[in-house]
Predict the 3D structure of the following.
Amino acid sequence: SPPPLWPLSASALPFHTPPPQPARRHTVELQPTAHIVHTPVGLSLPSPVAFSSFSRIGARAQQTVPSQTLSCSLQARIDACMMSTNEVIKRRRLGGSPGDDDVPAGRDDAVSRLEQRMNLMEASFQREILEVKRAAAVELHAKSSAIESRLSSLQDETDRLKAKVMKLDEENRRLEAAFKLHVKNSDWEYTAPDPPPDSYWIEKGYDYGDEDITDDDYIDNINGEFFWRARRQSKMLMSGICGLEDRTTEFYFGDGANDSPLIRYDDALLPHWVEFYYSMSSWLSSPVRGTIERTYPFNVYICNIELPANVLQELSKCFQLEGLGHMEVFSLERNGFQGSDGIDFALQIIQSQKKMIDFCFDRNPVDSDEDRQRLVDAIVGHPNISNCGLVGLCGGEINGHDYLVHILRKEKLQTLDFSDCSVTTAGQSTMFDIIKLHPNLVFLCLGDNNLNDEDAIHISGALRYNRTLERLWLKGNRFTRLGEDILKKVMYDDSSLNAVADSNHVCTIEGMGFNLPGGSGYYYVRRTRKDYDPKQSRARKIFHLLSQRNKQGTNAHHLEAEMGGDTLKVVPLALAAIQFYEMPWIRGLRGADKPGAVGVKLSIMYELVRSWNVTILDIHNN
């Protein structure tokens, strides 16, 4: 029989000191009659019925057996049972051990199911934990991205506001400088004397270089283009209003027209030059609070004036100053210089004005190759000059080819006028190789040089690759009819539709007589807006070829030959292309030719439909 579940004597209870009891003690012996349930390790536990009996007996024996003793002993037995169960599970995981056969089969299956369920629950818990972590990570990433985007937008807005504040601060400082200059010069007066009377110039008896120019023409020119401009521009500088307008301030001396007479130097002009020098120096050196990052741009044009060394010295001093403004355009055209004075003056301005983008030195006297090379080197080495005019830099027997090649190597160059410079290639292709691969050149003027038919071949080869050059001026060279046809071919090759499509649709060759937008308008690139699309020029040329073939009724024949005989596959594309290409072609015609162009599209459509036996199912309103 199993041992008793609870000790009946106080001495058998571990760690228990019985409280004082009355003299008479009752001893109760528990005799449970319920069935005993064996545990997996052979321990005996009472059945539920036995536990109910024990509880009743224990109630009667509360006076003898303390409740603390019963709960400690029961807890010890339950802990022992749980330890035994864990041992069984552990042995099953390790493959079993002796004594397992003593466990009933049903109980073994229950333990297996319990273990399986525990594993499933653990896996489910792990999945739920991973999903929670993943959802939390996604939410955190979304919040982090939103915060970063917001911070980025705030940073951009802050940068824009800072830029606006800096711009406003600079404008404020300029206004302060202008106001101070105005206050300082409020009592200023133009001290240069009035222009001499007309008789003074007549008595000088200047040779104007042209029989058609009279004394009255010269007097009107010098009074209007020099004395009046010198006084007006000096007052503008001294009053402080220079540079306050949105547009760039421009300073003119002399008339830039080609037929304008050269203004000869006279002592009567010097006080007006000095007055302008002091006015410009006063404006550029105006006291400004802080540092100005964005200075005022201004342009200087000096044309058809004789400039001695003393005048150039004064002008170079004021134009080299750094202060409230910077020179953006500097143009010297058809002036009179002595020796190397003109080149020296131009070099001083180029080297001091680093923000200059446009420089012109047209038809000024240059006496030596050394001066030409110095000027070209200064232009090439300047960091920002992109537009350059050097008309007549070389002349007579001096070949300007090497100077031209040197300037074209400047990658930032966008426009160049190198007309009348006796350029002779002598069969060399270096210049054309540079043009073919130049990344920024959009205008090139090579008029009045010595280019011939061999050069026309090189030019056409360069234009087949170059897609940045928009205008090429070639008037006044030595091209024959053969050279002109070669140049036409690169702009409009009518040997096939593919050849037309591969022609140059960006550049217009000017000065050759075949670029007019009427009649031969397919050589002309129409630029009516800033964002011009070369596809319009391509469409006009293709439609022109179709219209020319339509006059002989050979469109179908040529298309079959060019498409390799498999024409029916491209019938819908050809008919759609005719609709698309008509309008650009009409836009390129002159007004007198437009009425007769209305039926050209229908004529081409009818020719192809009839030749290919195509049945028209539907004709839209167009």
In short: Residues 393 and 421 are 6 Å apart (CA to CA).
